[in-house]
Amino acid sequence: MVERPVLGGVVVEERVPARRVIGLAAPALGVLAAEPLYVLVDTAVVGHLGALPLAGLAVGGVLFTQVATQLTFLSYGTTARASRLFGAGRRGDAVQEGVQATWLALVAGLLVIGLGQLLAAPAARLLAGDEVAGQAESWLRIALFGAPFVLVTMAGNGWMRGVQDTFRPLRYVLLGNGISAVLCPVLVYGAGWGLEGSAVANVAAQVVSAGFFFRALFVERVPLRPRPELMRAQLGLGRDLVLRSLAFQACFLSAASVAARTSVGAVGAHQIVLQLWTFLALVLDSLAIAAQAIVGQALGAHRPEQAKRFAWQVTGYGLVFGVLLGVVFAALAGVIPPLFTTDPAVLGEVPHAWWFFVALQPVAGVVFALDGVLLGAGDAAFLRTATLLAAGVGFLPLIWASYAYGWGLVGIWAGLSAFMVLRLVPLLLRTRSGRWARVGVVW
């Protein structure tokens, strides 16, 4: 019988039980999948209005997505900090990280509304021709009013994951998005609001979900006043995560712009496959959420060896999960795209991206799992540098070569493939080094 190590009178598990990983990952999967699943429903509803509204949603959606993707530290950074405090037995302090992240979310959300209204028209024109830009602008101006509520939901998810409570966020997000999924076709078709109806339904979902996260903080009975010193510390970690997010978005904005300048059919096809990619990326990211919480707790409790063992354990889970998803979506190649549109120009372009999307799933499974490990360890500076290099060397050159030489979606998705492979290699090397496993509640 193998004797398990004891630390401070507490038995330390050599291997994190799979049921614990699943217990954190399964509800996190529901939360992560809820938003892109709603976007897929939204895409299907708008897609039946025609290729032009679908293209407008594609461009407007990419622009609005910047709100969340540039401020991921509100969720991922908060989880990293809260999980270490939780591992050290300081649950109240972990929740306080959520309070301060919520204040930051409200301030940032109001700034986004103001700046977004000023920049909506020029940003849409930058990414697309006048006809598509007009559709995108009308959708975006309405959707921007949901920005503070999107960010509050991100902050709420962050601290709750940190204290390993992933079931309540699942209920909150599903209720909000469920209401909106019903409301979307009613407003788009029943009320005759068209593309703008989809934006209103979006805002409704965000308001409902954020309301539940506000209530969750109130019932914790912790002080709700702003604490500038904690917010400054969160922003310090957030700086590296924002720069990392900028690299992602420079790539995806460039991809949307090149697709929009290729043809209406190409941008519609890119929207469909990109939303499926986003959906599956977040499905795979459920393992990263579990990894963040478990690694952060282990390091906060001064158990670095457990954190290192778990890093490879979750890598194996990610690889298997990615292979399964790739097989499933390869089998459904002729079934899924017609669910989103009947436009022959769009359907004709889909295969140019589809097989890249399928082949990348195993790579994505490993990359996202290791992202979670390093985010849980607070190793944001390394993730920033690795992502910037992969974007600058892989994704962006191939996207703009695609525009220059007319490669279309094949060039765009080849760029995404290069980006993922160039992220995979340094993540594996960093994880093997073990230098990320720094213990304690700060880094």
Q: How would you describe this protein?
A:
With 443 residues, the protein is mostly helical. The chain has one domain (19-433). The protein contains 17 helices and 2 strands. It has a two-stranded antiparallel sheet with strand order 1-2. β1 and β2 form a beta hairpin. Residues 1-12 have low confidence and may be disordered. Pfam families: MatE (PF01554).
Order of helical and strand elements: EEHHHHHHHHHHHHHHHHH
Number of domains: 1
Q: Biggest β-sheet: count, sense, barrel?
A: 2 strands, antiparallel
Count the DSSP helices.
17
CA-based gyration radius? 21 Å
Segments where pLDDT lies below 50 for 5+ residues? 1-12
Average residue-wise pLDDT = 86
Biggest β-sheet: strands ordered side by side in the sheet: 1-2
* Helical content band: over 70%
Give the termini distance in whole angstroms: 37 Å
Task: Determine the strand fraction and express it as a percent band.
Answer: under 5%
| E-strand count | 2
Shape designation: globular
Structural class estimated from helices and strands: mainly alpha
